Structure formats: C-alpha cells, structure tokens
Amino acid sequence: MQFMLLFSRQGKLRLQKWYVPLSDKEKKKITRELVQTVLARKPKMCSFLEWRDLKIVYKRYASLYFCCAIEDQDNELITLEIIHRYVELLDKYFGSVCELDIIFNFEKAYFILDEFLLGGEAQETSKKNVLKAIEQADLLQENFSSQSPHNCLSTP
Amino acid sequence: MPAVSKGDGMRGLAVFISDIRNCKSKEAEIKRINKELANIRSKFKGDKALDGYSKKKYVCKLLFIFLLGHDIDFGHMEAVNLLSSNKYTEKQIGYLFISVLVNSNSELIRLINNAIKNDLSSRNPTFMCLALHCIANVGSREMAEAFAGEIPRILVAGDTMDSVKQSAALCLLRLYKTSPDLVLMGEWTSRVVHLLNDQHMGVVTAAISLITCLSQKNPDEFKTCVSLAVSRLSRIVSSASTDLQDYTYYFVPAPWLSCKLLRLLQCYPPPEDGAVKGRLVECLETILNKAQEPPKSKKVQHSNAKNAILFEAISLIIHYDSEPNLLVRACNQLGQFLQHRETNLRYLALESMCTLASSEFSHEAVKTHIETVINALKTERDVSVRQRAADLLYAMCDRSNAKQIVAEMLSYLETADYSIREEMVLKVAILAEKYAVDYSWYVDTILNLIRIAGDYVSEEVWYRVIQIVINRDDVQGYAAKTVFEALQAPACHENMVKVGGYILGEFGNLIAGDPRSSPLVQFNLLHSKFHLCSVPTRALLLSAYIKFINLFPETKSTIQEVLRSDSQIRNSDVELQQRAVEYLKLSSIASTDVLATVLEEMPPFPERESSILAKLKKKKGPGAVSVNELEEGKREGGELNGGGERGGDSSAISTPSPSADLLGLRAGPPVTAAAPSAGSLLVDVFSEAGSGSLASYFQFVCKNNGVLFENQLLQIGIKSEYRQNLGRMYLFYGNKTSVQFVTFTTTLNVQAKPVEPLIEGGAQVQQVINIECLTDFSDAPLLNIKFRYGGALQNLTLKLPVTINKFFQPTEMASHDFFQRWKQLSLPQQEAQKIFKANHAMDTEVLKAKLLGLGMALLENVDPNPENFVCAGVIQTKAQQVGSLLRLEPNAQAQMYRLTVRSSKDTVSKRLCELLAEQF
After folding, report:
1. What's the pLDDT score for residue B750?
2. Which of A129, B711, B833, B885 has its CA 20 to 30 A from that of B64?
3. Going edge to edge, which strands form the sheet with B706-710?
4. What's the complex ipTM?
5. Which residues from B are below 8 Å from A76, CB to CB?
C-alpha cells in the first residue's frame, strides 16, 4: 500500500498515512485530487478505480471515506477488508466510533493504525492482539500519569 | 469512552481543537492558529523549562496544526527531547511528530537516531516497537545507514518478542524498499525464510511481506520459501473456520496470510518437486471448490475475504499458465462473477479475465462470455466497469469475432465517456487492422471511426490508414470511392478531409470514370472544405491539387486559378504561400513528363510495427513500463544523433534525373519523387531513416565490415571494431562519378572528426567515429550526409549499423549453469520470443557463423536437442552490464525458427529479438 487517507463527506482530511516518500506539496496535490474524485462518485459505483498508475480502493463508513492506494499487483478485495478491520479496531477502541473521536483523538487513530499496518503491509491482523498492544500502552500511560500527577501545572 | 477518559486527556488540546472547529471562516481559523503558534513559540522560547506534559501537549498541537494543512517550521527540537523521556506517553507523541514531520536537519537526525538506538537496546518490547515503527514510518536513507545492520539481528534473535519481530520484519521491508543496497540479508537469509514456519500467525503475516519483496529481487537465494509457503497455505486452506481463532475473519481462515502466500508463490515458476506441486494444485482446487459452496455468512466481509483469496489463486494459476484444467475452471468461475450483483466482483472478474484471454489454454473459454461482456459495455452504470469491459473485448478479440467486437466498440463510441474515447479509438483502429480479412472492411471501419469520434483520432491513426491504402492496390479504388462519399456529408471532420485529400490526390483517377465523381467534381468537393480547415490540412490539400493537375490535365486551369488567387499566393502563412507559388510554377513550366515523374504515385511504405500500437502501449497496458524505458532509450539515442536532423529531412535520395535541375531550384530540402504530395506530413510517419538503408542496416548485425550504402553516385563502406562498451567505426565515402562532390558534410553528434569537404571524382575519403555505449538502446544513430553534385544538393540519411549486440562480451558456461541462469530470468518481461520463417537456407555452419558474429558465446552440448543453438553473453554499457541468454530452435520441416532471448533487462531482450529475427 502506498498511502491511506481518511476524509469526511465535506472533503476535510482526517487522517493521512504515507508509506512512500513524497514532498508535502505532492501529498497535498494527491489528496486534493483524490478527495475530489472519490466524492464525485455515486454510491452504487464500484469501490475500485484506476488512478495514475495506482489502484484506489475506497469505502464509505457513515460520514467518513477510507481510501487506500495500492500497487498494480495488490489485491483489491483484501484491501477493502483492511479498511474494514481498521474501522472495527477504531470502533472497538473508542466504543462505537464516530468522526469526532478521530478528530479529538487523532493521535490514537495513528497509534492504532501503526499497530495494524506498518510500512504499508499488514503487521497484525488479529483484532485481539492489536487491541491488546494499544491497551498495554494505555496502561503504561495511566501508571505514569498516576505516578506523576500534573504537579508541574501547579507551579506558576 | 476509554481513550478520552484516560489520565492524559490533554485538555488544552481538546479545547484548541474545539476552537478550530467553531471557527466560522477560513480567516478565523488562520487567526486562531496564528495565535496558538505565537503562544507555543513563546512557551518554547521562554525562560522557564517546560515540563514533559506541556511539551507533549504543545508538540501535539503543532502536529494537529500541521495535519490541518498548515506549515510548521519549529518544534522539532522539543519533539526530539520527548523521545528520551522515560514516560511512555511523551515518547509516543515525540515519535509520532517525528514520523509525520521528518526534518532533514542533520543535527536533529543524529539526535533522533540516538534516541532510537537507546530504545532498540532497551529490551522493553513496547519501546522497541515504538522505535521500529518510527524507522518504518520515516524510512530515510540516514536511518537505513544507522539501523539496517541491527534490525535483521532483532528479527531472528530467539528471545525477541513476537510483536517486536513483526515490527522488525516490516521495518526492514521499508528500509529495503528505500535503500536496497544497505539491507544485506546474507547470513540471515535462511532464518528469515524459516519465519514462514513460525507458530505465531502474526509473525508469519508480517514476515511474508518482507520475504516476498526480497524474493522478487533475489529469487534464487530465497527459493526454499516455495515449499514452506505451500505447506503453510495447505494447512490454512484445509483448516476449519474456527481452528485459527482470532486469525479467522468472518469464517474465513487467515485471509490476509493466504493472499500473501499466494502472492509470494507468484514470484516463482511452478514448483519442480512433484509432491510440492501436487499439494499446491490441491490447494488451488480446494479454493476453487470453496467458491461453489454456499456462503457461511451473509456479510459482505465474508464474501470479500473469501473472494480475495480466490482472485489471488486465479492470479497464480494465470501466472503458471500451465494447468489447462485450472485455467478453464478459473475462467468459468469468473464467468459467474460477470453477472454477480456486486459491482466490485463484476469489475474484478472483467479485469482478471483480461489476463486469462491471453493464455492459449483459456482464450477459447473466455470467448464464450462475449455476449455478457458486450452487455456490460452497454449497461454498466459505472464508467470504470465499462472501461474494464472494453479492455476485455479487446483482449478476447481474434479473427473469429473481430467484426462483431469492432462493431460493438464503434457503436459504444457514439456514447462513450470522453475520458476513454481516445483509447477506444486506438483499440478499434488496431483491431481493425490486425484482423482485417478484406481491406474494404478496414477502410470502412477507420472512416467510421473518424465520423464518430474524429476529435479523438490521433495522427497515428489516419497516417496508418493512408499507409495501408497505399501499400495495397486491391483497396485503393474502394478507398477513393468511400472517402468521396464520406466527404459529401455537409459537416465532416477535418481528419476526414485530410484522409480524403490524400487518397483522392493519389487515387482519384480510379473513380474518375463515373460522371458523378468526375475530376472537377472531386476537386470542387475537396475545395469546398478548404476554407474550414487548419493550415496543415490546407497544405495537404494544396499538394492534392497539384497531384490532380498531373492526374487530370483537364483540371489544370481551374486549379491554377485557385493557386493564383491572392488568398493562396499571398497567404500570410509561409508554408501555404510557398506551396502555392511552387506548385503554380511547377504546373506551368514543367513538361507533362517531368510533372508525371515528380508527382508519381507514392511508393509502398516499408512494413513496420504499427505506430498506433506503440501509442496504445505508451498510453496504457501491462507493457507501459517497458515502453517508457524504450522511449527513454530513444531520447538518449536522440542525443547521440544530435542536431535536429533525425531523418526529418526527406530521407530518400535523389538520383540524377532530368528533373535534377528543376529540383535544385528549391532552397530547402530537395524535392524527391515522393515529396510533393507527401508534403512534410507523411515523412513524419517514419521517425526513422529512409527505407533504402534498412536492409543493409540489418545486414550488419552479425558482421562489422562491408558496404553500407551504394547508389549511382556514392558508395559508403564501413569497418568497425568493438571492445567492451567502446567502439570505433571507419566510414569510407567513395565518389563513383567523374565529377567532384563539393561541400560534403556529415552530421552526427558522436565524436566524428570532420570529413573532407571535397571528394574528387573516383576518390575516396575516410571518416572515423568513436562510439561509447552509455546505456542500452534500440534506435541506431543517424548519419546525415549532404553534398553537392553538379549543383544539385544531395541529402541522405542513413542508420549507422551500431546495434546493441556489438557490445557483447561472450560468456562461456556449462549446461547446468546455463539452465540455472535461464530459470533466474523467468519474469515474463525478461523474455522476448519470435517465431519466424527462414529467409535463407537453414545451413548449420552459416547459422553458427552468424551467431558467432553476433558477439555471444555459442555454447556446445548445452541444449539437449543438438539441432538447437544456445548462446550467452554480457552486454557492456557504461551504466550497467546486461546478461543475455539466447536460444534458437530451427524447424527444418516447417522452414521456421523459434528465437527466445532472456536478459536481465526487458528492453534488451526485445531489441535483440527484433534484430536477430531479420538474420536467418
């Protein structure tokens, strides 16, 4: 996979993950182009399209579009299920996820994605294992935060 | 709500995000962001040391601002500081920031790498994973330099935690993709391959992506993975849906891993070991069988996962292309999908069937679905699906169904989406030509194409129809009649006028007997379009008019009248004015004989690969990459050719004839028999040198010395020698006449020492050319020769016989080595094959001599069949060395040869095959 984009029906980018080196300018151009292309498509249309020399696989969940760019030899259907598994992971973690969760906890969305996909390839496809990794991290966080209650905030 | 309620809610961040969301306008948002940036800057610059929490919060805010699309030019140092925090949450944000906002500041990179190094050696799996994720996300060369050595060790170490292994495998994959030279598997290879046997499914899932990528590059070192992959696949395929617990996805066992395993196997030819192969075929059959079973769930996820495996299995079956039974079953399965209610499946089935159509085993099976596919072209609501249907029709087309398919495509063109029209036009043009049995059908098809989609008919397409009409005299009369009729439409496309003008100018006489298309009627019809056309078309029409004067003397006065009118002879466009003046003069001073010679019918065009096909390849298609490379080769060749001379000038040579003096009047390139009616238009069709030199060019593929060119005036001899990637060529220009050639020049932008400008009658001068092969190439350098002979300028463009094989170093090898290397070069694009008829007697000794002349080593006792010839050699270019293997199989009975060339570079295989096919 070369990159994954999450954007809203209004075309607002909510998450971007690039697995190939590109300049910021190029990334913005690609994003603009793809958001426009995908939003212009009608609901019953097929989830795959050719774009430049890549294949785009996208799916809409409520107000969010999940859109992946894969290479010629990659498998479209399994990519569609990568998207679905990621949605399931977000859903499980946030408890019935909505766009707002991803806006306000964007860093978590990135962390979960890194546990699931790395370098554009599936790293761990078991839902349990991914969530376990994230929960462990959260646990570490809590331990640390309880050890150090924000004492620094109180110092003027 | 776990995340938000957790201790580190970062309230400041949430407030900031809400503020941004509440902004009513873009301006308000920017204002709020600038305020925040100023605030953060002052905090970072302030005297008070910030605590970790605030640093984290501000870094996170900066990240949010960046992700909104604004530029961030500070905060990197604070993020780097967070990396060395011993608080997990701070470290994590630090890494996220670094991953998203990579900065090439070398001081920072040193600090980042230090922090990563610490975490990698911390033995804390969570920290190690964070560090590995960061390397995988950034994947820069600096990181590869720092960590490419360490990560394989982590990956295979016995005490590494599973989750760390997974991250390490994919991290290494990313580094390999950016800096393959830095990632050396060497001693780790076998242990990495054995990760396929790991008990932890997650480890296998991650490791296999790495193994697949490495196998593509070094298939031999990793080939033990084939049997491991097959047994792993077999275990998954035969497992019950609950066996794999959490790796079962909607009742499908390990779909991701299955797809990746099938993908890995596509890097290799079918397993040689009978048992392994049997097991694999069994797996593939099971997968095909499962597709027929009733679904275990109604959820789309279930069918997607199941079908993802099915499509990957079909890809493997197509890749092997050796199991007719499986190929036909695959085709039937896809046939069912063609009518599935899921658009996605219909799309993929059409796409996959396209590749099946090119296999000899399944081509017929694919053809049985023609009605369904035509229906898809007509009724699919999604243009991308229709596009796939058109592709498939193109792929399944052969002589038996060409008329039907071309007709359907033509009728689809009338309503086709603008985005795919040009491609459709090219496809129709190619199919019509390829499968034309009677050429009147071909002409009708192309004219229809112009009528229906004239705007999308590129030059290549209408050039081609003219070439074909000129080369086939059985269709010329029909073509003239048809264009004449087509031109009668009140509004016809300019491309139609071009084709019509050209064809009537050449062959209008064939229909002139009919009073309805008498010469004057033809002329008036053409001229009625003149004023609506662009300059190039008008230029072409003027050439057609002068041809008319020659064909039909009775039109002379009318046409001279037209040429003489101010709008022609004083046209502000130089080209038009020049043509009008010259044609007028020509028609008034030249005798009928001279006119007839100058305006003779076009000679047939040499047969060559259709330029349309080349265009389609360039546009799209599986060969797109290789064609790009070819184009690059061309460009490099272009530099070699230097100047703008690339055969642009008239490429035929003028011979001394009664018309020589008259032609000498022209300031520009000499007009040859072919030039007037062609104008400058058709010469462009051939970007290569004239036809005269083509035969002799091929004659030099297997030899280095001889006569390159000869006509009544001039003989050019050639002697050349090659070593490694360097060569030297001596050209001998001999004047065969008794008169001197003056201002003799040759243009070639390799280090050609200038040639003597004067060649005495009967004398010979020599020119030396030094050659260096920079990279592989297809096009020969062009040599343009100009001189004056008795006042007339002579102009000649020749292809120098420098071909890629000149740079061969022969390689001797034993039979075993040969076949091993042969197998290594097994990617489809690495092979080029041609089957062709023998042009000369099939004499073994002559063949041997030719193959030796080619420059490769002729290997004895390698091929089990003593009739066959095999050769090996390495092409030396400055950029790289390209190993090539060749096999020539003569079939004395059929008087045919089969030639197969495999090279590490696809363009080389292709080129060698083309060159050699002309030799035997």
Report:
1. 52
2. A129
3. B706-710, B714-723, B726-735, B764-772
4. 0.91
5. 308, 311, 344, 348
